[in-house]
Amino acid sequence: MSMLQADQDKKTSDIQNLSTLELAQALMEKLAISPQDWHRLKSNRKVRASEQAAAAIVFLLKDQPEEALQRLNQASGWLDRSISAPPCPTHGHTSKG
Known about the structure:
Layout: H1 3-16, H2 20-31, H3 38-41, H4 45-61, H5 65-80
Helix pairs in contact: 2-4, 4-5
């Protein structure tokens, strides 16, 4: 068995040892926009829809269908262009004191 095959077998074994919820949570974390990428990706429809769809799966697996539906609706909105990213609250506003 090659080193590459052994490494692949270990990854497969590791994945099989995770619960469905753990796998969904890992996917959600992987697809989440990091703070340093927020401005670059906040309007990327594919990225935002993927992020929301993964969150929906997590909520479904946690038996929270209402939350899952909200995330699926948001994912759909990103894909059909019915929603857009709001303006960044830290730009373009002057504080009045």
